[in-house]
Design goal:
alpha/beta, 8-stranded parallel β-barrel, two-stranded antiparallel ribbon, 12 strands, globular, Oxidoreductase, NAD(P)_OxRdtase_dom_sf, NADP_OxRdtase_dom, AKR, oxidoreductase activity
Amino acid sequence: MNILGSTGLPVSALCVGTSPLASMPGLYGYAVSEERAVATVTAVLANQKINFIDTSNGYGEEGSAEKRIGLALDGKGLPPGVVLATKVDPDPRTGDFSGRRVRASLEESLSRLGLDRVQLLHLHDPERISFAAATAPGGPVEALAELKQEGLAEHLGVAGGPVGLMRQYLDTGVFEVVLTHNRYTLLDRSAADLFRDAHERGIGVLNAAPYGGGMLANEKQQRYAYGARDDRIAAAARAMRTAAARTGVPLAAAALQFSLRAPFIDSTVVGVSSPARVAETVALAETPIPDSLWAELDSLVPPSSLWLDPR
């Protein structure tokens, strides 16, 4: 177990992301039934090597990911030692991301999950609102601070994409945890400095989407980082897959362990869509990887001009 920054929360190096459990075939290319989703959460809760679950108000229609987690919890609350993080999202109909909406978002989440509080609450994808509006009186940042004071959220985080924006939010002093996605992978190191600096400041660091939206786990994946792929990024991924194959290592194992071995990352968020994927993810985390492969993979990283946050 790792301690999540200064929060004191003990979290496993692997965190299960539940976005796939919301069944969003438009994003992932496949549907997930309610039965399968509940079985997946049940498998996570039974796994001795994972104690950390990540979800969001906005995952799926009417918060379907949270609803399915709630069904798995069955009104019994979180088992001892399990940490759950969720996120506040704008109103899906109006786009409202005011302080009032933030409070409503958490209320919806607690109702779906069957909980009276959460250990970690993130401001989700704040790039959907200006920083000035987010930090203004009556805005989402003020509302989050109030929810923490009221005990409805034990700790606050910010979860989004662009590293420059994440730095701005961390500099407010409100947030104890930072999460960003697709920006510390075998293909992209955009978040490396952000993560190192946050770790040194005692801020918890969560790295999501270590497979680059699937490209590093599935060679047939036609998308990268939830969007259209660049052929040069795809070529780098193919070269990395070839290098890994020469050592008998699945590229997915190297992609996952690239994040797990970073001393400044407290937990790596990996989306799962079935009980089998839970077991497979643990196995990938434990796959032996020769030191020589890391050096070769480093030599194949695309230039920083191709990263999600170019340098």
